Amino acid sequence: MGINNLWSSQQEQKLQAWHRMQQVVEPGKPSPCFTIAREFGCQAYPLAEELIKRLNSRVAGEPWIIVGRQVIDRVSELSGYSVAQIEKSQDTPASLKAIFSMFLDGSRAEETEIFTHMRSVIRSFARRGNCVLVGRGSVFAVQDLPNCINLRLVAPPEFRIRKIMKSHNLSEKAAIDFVELHQQQRDDFLHRFADKIIADPVLYHLVINNAQLEVGKIAEIAEEYLIRYTS
Fold first, then answer.
1. How far apart are alpha carbons 223 and 56 in whole angstroms?
2. How many domains does the chain have?
3. Residue 55 belongs to a domain
4. By the 8 A CB rule, do 78 and 222 touch?
5. Is 136 left (phi over 0), alpha (psi -120 to 50) or beta?
6. Does residue 15 form part of some domain?
């Protein structure tokens, strides 16, 4: 399922409520949160979908949601951020403009301001819990939050290339180029965002080979980790 299909009126209502309460953290132990990082071509969004389906089927109360690019974009709009100024920035590489645009302050195109807002949005979701944060360097922003479980998906290049060939209807050569380009863009972005290495295993509670397990089994392992070690 594509990212655009992850949106719903329920999520819109939840985001409106979140925006009104984003500075308020309820007393007591915060609800759990997952972050998912991955090598490009791994199945982060399918895993997120499977995980929230499992979690929402067993718990009552506040529903779990996926927080990815589209969600953060909407929150940024609610926060009063504009995407227009980014087009005027001569210092921002074209390959990163689409990423930076949703975190841009309306008055300046400084990366420090973009990233400060990005961290704030990610941490606000994480501190309230009941969400799966996909990508965007979320693992760096939540390292000090004890309610967060950090996952990373890895896989051999051939597995990731096959997935991209199928999902984007590309030839093998085109898929190889596509994976290399987007992985480099993500690495560049994360280096600028956190100046750390996303592949560092000490950042994560679980690092899983996506080529060895299908997403349903990975979601089961993640849920079991939540039940066993955070309850």
1. 11
2. 1
3. yes
4. no
5. left
6. no
Q: What is the pLDDT of residue 231?
A: 60
CA 182 – CA 161 distance, rounded (Å): 12
Judge whether 53 lies within some domain. Answer: yes
Domain holding 50, by residue range, is: 30-225
65-67 sheet: strands from edge to edge: 65-67, 131-134, 33-38, 148-154, 206-209
The percent of residues above 90 in pLDDT, for the chain, comes to 37
Q: How many CA atoms lie within 13 A of 106 on its CB side?
A: 7
Q: What's the mean per-residue pLDDT of the chain? A: 75
Average pLDDT of the segment spanning 152-168: 93
153 pairs with which residues across the strands?
38, 208
- Candidates 185, 183, 192; CA nearest to 42 is 183
**CATH code for position 100:** 3.40.50.300
Nearest to 44 by CA among 193, 144, 150: 150
